[in-house]
Design brief:
single chain; Rna Polymerase Sigma Factor, Chain: A; 9 helices
Amino acid sequence: MKVEQLREKEHIHKKIIEACKQGDNRSRYELYALYSKAMFNISYRMMNNREEAEDMLQEAFTQAFLKLESFRYESNFGAWLKRIVVNTCINAINKKKVELTYCEEIYDYDATEESNDYEPEYTVANITKAMEKLPEGGRMVFSLYLLEGYDHAEISQILGITESTSKSQFMRAKRRIVETLKQTHGDAMDNS
């Protein structure tokens, strides 16, 4: 494929985006319909609350439509919009003046204690449910790194923490999720 064809393919929604820049409301609705579900999922993982996630989604799309003139097709539209959603969520959390609660190492991980012969079910639904139990800071780092694809350097800039804090929070969150899944699996085994 030629470079021009690749660029065209990258910006498959260019006509819709250009119509939105001209103020076409149908195109705005179409763009919203194309991206709202994926952006809601990001927002929900960040906010951990359906109503707040819906509010953040609306606010992010409002900002995106206001800033649409600045979109220059240097990246794909989804990545550009995702950054707006993530920043909107982080700003909302900061506005609430909620200090991010990072996981404290409350468990001394001892491999000798691990004598379970089963592995928990690592499904999207189970992991998502386990994520809801994480402290806010750990949940955000876990979500940004594993689900949104940011690296630890980017996360440190986004959240205003050190890169090593991002790495350690990710590992602690991951360990917590595994423990939660094992506990949930163990409880399910006890009830059967």
